[in-house]
Amino acid sequence: MPENQTEATPPAITASNVDISNCDREQIHLVNAIQPHGALLVLEEPSLRIVQASANSASFLGLPTDSLLGQTIDALLGKANTEKLKTILAEHDLTNILDRLMTLPKLPHLDQWFNVFGNRTDGFLVLEFERASPSSQEQERVGLYQFRDFIQRLQRTPSLAVFLDVAIEQIRHFTGFERVMAYRFDLDGSGEVVAEAKAPDLEAYLGLHYPASDIPAPARRLFALSPLRHLPNVDYEPVPILSYAAKPLTPEVSMGINPSPSPLGGEGFRERGIGLITNGLPSHQPSQNPLPQPLPLRGGGENRKPLSPEGRGVGERGLTVQDNYSIPEPQPVDLSHSFLRSVSVMYTGYLRNMGVKSTMVLPLLKNGHLWGLISCMNHSAPLYLHYEQRVPVELLTQMLSLMMGDREDLDQYAYRTSLDIVLGKLVSLMGREEGFHQALTADQTNLLTTLDADGVALIADGKLSTLGNTPSESNISLLADWLGQQEAAVFASHRMLDDFPATRDFLDTASGVLSVRLSRAGSDRIIWFRPEMLHDVHWAGDPNKPVEISTIDNEIRLQPRTSFALWKETVHGQSRPWLDCEIDYVTRLRRAIFDVIVERAKLLARTNAELERSNQELDSFAYAASHDLKEPLRGIHNFAEFLKGEEGINLSERGLKRIETILRLSGRMDNMLESLLQYSRVGRNALDMQAQSINKIVEQVAELILQVMPEKNITIDIQPFLPAIQCDRVRVTMVFHNLIMNAIKYNDKDHKIIKIGCDPSTIPVVFFVRDNGIGIAPNHHEQIFQLFRRLHGRDDFGGGSGAGLTIVKKAIQRHGGHIWLESTLGSGSTFFFTLSSENNAESERL
Amino acid sequence: MKEERPLLIVEDSDEDFEVTCWALRQAGFDRPIVRCSRAEEALLRLCPVPPNQESGSMMPCLVLLDLNLPGMNGLQLLEELRSVEQPPTIPVVILSTSKNPRDLAACYRLGAAGYLCKPLSLELYTSKMLKLTQYWFDAVTLPEE
User: Fold this and answer.
1) Which of A196, A522, A722, A765 shows a CA-CA span of 20 to 30 A to A420?
2) Given CB atoms, is A646 within the 8 Å cutoff of chain B?
């Protein structure tokens, strides 16, 4: 480790691209070096000619690199094995996958068992060789038996947490790693150790969080790609991959380990790999085989970056060789699927800083997405797992991935089921109740039932209802406005302080918000609230300093962080996160509410149409009935008059009185029929909306009335400058006429004073007719508007049919307005009315 | 003396016809009164087919027309009278119980020469009939046949 410390020093990076997300851009899959526990060959197909070879071929495969480059594979495998390989290659696709192709008990010139792996990439065949033994074959079988028991144990685990505990304990048992962890990624790329099995003397990492930059995006991608990444020795010395070159290079060129790393390569790596040629180069290398040269030496020109001093030094020492191999067209092969691929210095540096000697990492995929990792670590010494030991762990982890999706869903199963039941109840309540407020905020089952939220607000039909702990009304409306700007119909956040900083004033109720929009316009919605949950996150080191930048020799360096000291962060403004099943529940609730709304609208439209029809029928009926009834009534009246006139002298006084009664009653009935006719006319005929001067209308009415009652002492005081409005002149005239007539009729004062005016400041304008008459008791304020409803004796106050105010009210309603009154018994009444609905008030005035 | 042209009353109700006649007589009206109880009958009388054919009876000098009639109603009769090739020159005064402004407007629009709302009381009715006959038979001059 100590001597490697310098090598682990990360590559130099120019000031222009110092950036803590540097790792995110490093294209580590194209690094042209491998770890030393295997050998790698790149072959052309179908010739199977070797175009690249790892520099350790002599020591590992028994043949020096220069004797392999340019040869076909039978030079290494011999005829029989080559034929076998060809057959296998024909049967295997190998694209984007690494497969074990064959196990070779020996090579022609080397008595050693090998496992041979293959992968097709960039149009080449990559073969990787790893040592094997007869005993390891036996181990594989044993491992598989254990594996079966293990699956059975996993199936019996009650929860995901236990599931993971069992799994990693078993993996530790299989592999012998000192520490095995399950690591779960958060949405932002940071992660947490959610399960851990470790040697007793080791410090626990369980519950620790690691920032996103610790496992940068390309690394996460690579992890997802390959079923297993094994780094037996963190302090390994990378083995470069050498390429066959057709044309000799000049010594000058060959001298240079080209100081500019390939644009395709991660800079750190390459230098380290190259450096190794000299440093750690096995004895069989350059001196005996002066031809090979590290790859790739050209092609990096565009992206020149100064090498670190170490790298340069090592490189210069390393290339004292006369090379006639170079790279005609340097084609570093994509080693994403290679198990020998060398790893980023950032990674090894990081592991070294953590005190890790060996690792193995396997991806945990849930429904195909990278959910987390199984991470195995050895702290005391390097640990190499050969293929037969790795296979069961790999299979097991894949099995974990398959089982995990179900397992996590299963954890929420009971909750989901009870939410389903609540949803069903709410739907039936909505079907029964008049409004959503009654249906969704009832005592028994409501929007808070079962759902794990502390409060809920329902905004619908211009009304707000709340249950449980919610922010104040004003804060809810503030939040609702903000939610209205969100595009998605369903919004969920457990970190409202970040999403909408204005929540800082009511985090105690609304740190977490789940909301569904109920109307297209966005004003109607339901909002569930969760309170702030202060909690501590234990970071493994300060998450705000995931990497360290240092300056050495005037060059700015990016280094993996060295401090993993526990960093406790208290998290504010967050609640418990919303679960998938909760979001799913509110989404389904929203759909159910929409169904109810649509159903309601249909019903309402039907009811309205029916009501309209029946109203019209009623009006037509009233019209026809009263019209047709009038004729015989007239006959009765007229013939009673004939009787009286022609036979009056022959009748007794009582007989005459009876005839008088017939005449009086038929006269009243005629009045009533006439009122009924008027009333039905108000409803039947379309309004003729025109701009009308109310002053003009009222003045005409007043003049007419004063003309017919010249004997009475009446003052009709009309406020000047009443507004001109859109209305039906005939009906509004009728309104004023009836109201003023009533004001005079129901007035026992000698001097009857009627005031007519309006409050123009209101929308819509409120008109009034005020009198100093007898007044109306409050309990009669409703009744007076009923048809033929009378408060006084038939012939008191000049009689009347009792339909006047009914007609007035209907005429006002036809305009969309309302009528109401204030009155003091004995001193007078004021009738107020509007001639437009609030919605139309804009167009009312002229 | 030339025979006086009659007054035509189009009225389906016997009672109403009787009342109207009574009121006219009370008002001193002494010309002949003829009656059609249906609008169709009145139309034939006012517009004989074929035209210009001498009808057996004299053309009325004035028509009092009730609106509410079985079959063709008063308004439809007015419309028919207007639409024939040679509309009669006889004024038609509507006699109705309806005070509906729409009925009033429709009648005048269709060429009614007057619109009289039948009052309930005979006294009032008589006084209206007096004014009506005074107007049509004293004040104004009716066209010749």
Assistant:
1) A522
2) no
B115 falls in which pLDDT band (50, 70, 90)? very high
Q: How far apart are CA B36 and CA B29, in angstroms?
A: 19
Q: How distant is the Cα of A626 from the closest Cα of chain B, in angstroms?
A: 10
Q: What is the pLDDT of residue B18?
A: 92
Domain boundaries, chain B: 7-139
Tokens of A3: 């001597």
Phi, psi of B106 (to 5 degrees): -60, -40
- Report how far residue A39's alpha carbon sits from residue A50's, in angstroms, rounded to the nearest whole number: 13
Amino acid at A765: V
Model ipTM value: 0.75
Pair of tokens at residue A382 = 């390097």
The shortest C-alpha distance from A702 to chain B (Å) reads 21
Eight-state DSSP code of residue A360: E
Which of the four pLDDT bands, split at 50, 70 and 90, describes residue A331?
low
Of A631, A641, A666, the CB nearest to B16: A631
* Closest by Cα among A773, A733, A738 to A753: A773
B122–A639 CB contact, under 8 Å: no
Backbone angles phi, psi at A260, to 5 degrees: -100, 115
Residue A54 has pLDDT above 60, yes or no: yes
- Name every chain A residue with its beta carbon within 8 A of the beta carbon of B102: 681, 685
The span from the CA of A770 to the CA of A190, in Å, is 75
What is the rounded distance in angstroms from the CA atom of residue B93 to the CA atom of residue A70?
Answer: 124
Buried residues in A184-217 as b, exposed as e (16+ CB within 10 A): bbeeebbbbbbbbbbeeeeeebeebbbbbbbbbe
Which domains are seen in chain A, by residue range?
A: 3-7+14-132+241-339 (3.30.450.20), 135-232+363-411 (3.30.450.40), 414-534+573-578 (3.30.450.270), 687-844 (3.30.565.10)
Q: What is the pLDDT of residue A136?
A: 66
Option in B22, B100, B118 nearest A634 (CB)? B118
Q: Which of A638, A639, A646, A734 to mutate to test the interface with B (most CBs of B within 10 A)?
A: A638
**CATH architecture of the domain with range B7-139:** 3-Layer(aba) Sandwich (3.40)
> Can you give the C-alpha Rg of chain B in angstroms?
15
The reply to whether A641 touches chain B by the CB within 8 Å rule is yes
Tokens of A439: 């249906």
Contacts of residue A674 in chain B, CB cutoff 8 Å? 99
Chain A: residue whose CA lies nearest to B96: A631
Whether A104 contacts A73, CB under 8 Å: no
| Section A290-296 average pLDDT | 38
Q: What is the pLDDT of residues A87-145, one digit of tens each?
A: 998 888 888 778 888 888 888 888 888 999 998 888 889 999 998 887 766 666 666 67
At A615, list the tokens. Answer: 């109203």
In order, the DSSP letters of A555-591 are EEEEEE-----EEEEEE-S--PPPPHHHHHHHHHHHH
Angle between helices A729-745 and A653-684 (to 10 degrees): 140
Alpha carbon distance A783, A21 (integer Å): 79
Task: Please report the pLDDT score of residue A408 as a whole number.
Answer: 67
pLDDT tens digits, one per residue of B52-70: 555 567 889 999 999 988 8
Residues in chain B with CB shorter than 8 Å from the CB of A667 are: 120-121
Q: What is the mean pLDDT of residues A327-334?
A: 60
Q: Could you give phi then psi for residue A169, rounded to 5 degrees?
A: -60, -40
Reply yes or no on whether the pLDDT at A9 is more than 60. Answer: no
